[in-house]
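Internal tracking record. Fields below are filled automatically when a chain is submitted to the structure queue. Please do not edit lines marked as system-generated. If the sequence contains nonstandard residues, flag them in the REMARKS field before resubmitting.
Queue: standard
Priority: normal
Entity type: single polypeptide chain
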Amino acid sequence: MTDIKPHAAHWGYFDAVVRDGRVTEARPFGLDPFPGSLLRSIPDVVHAECRVDRPYARRGWLRGERRGSTRGQDPFVPLTWDQATRLIAEETARTRAEQGDAAILGGSYGWASAGRFHHARSQLQRFLGLGGGFVAQVTNYSYGAGMTLMPHVLGTNDPVQGPATDWGAITANARLMLCFGGLPLKNGLVTAGGAGAHDYVPLMRRAREAGLRFVNLGPLRDAARPSSTRSGSPSARAGTRP
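SYSTEM-GENERATED OUTPUT FOLLOWS
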């Protein structure tokens, strides 16, 4: 029996082909102009032997050995979801009672799922907030340095947080794009909530065809031009300085 299951992942929208209970194929969304090749790995990822299939806990931790040198050496023991939920509730309550709310970091970044309802950090922080509070993070690990520095350099965080100049305006008005670190095509194929239309590469090509010149300054020779993908790379050659 074969079923078609519409789905979304960080690499885009797709139809999962399920045969006899196993995902055998991921067909890209039909209206996507440049679907990423990473979608083809989904069947292997779903059924990989290394995938965590249920909750686990360290054996020593379950015995009460919460500190010491066994971390990294201790085998993991499978748990039921009821057991895992009870342990989380008990440990959270214990930490609050002994150390206070400030001892709990609600810091999961949220890339574990596509979408907002199942966004890992949102769910974690909602749970911790209902229990009394937690410590959150300042900026993020992706462009935290930019968020800290740009207000001192340009007076605003807009260059890293938007609104940004779109490709239409760049194509119509710019003649030279100076890049620091390159514009790898693969970066436009991954989004936190999934994408139905990957237009990053087509828009970049359109800008090049309109006469825009790309110049990149960076330490990596591979970043001299946008990296290749299964559909090729823009024809732009970039000047580099090591």
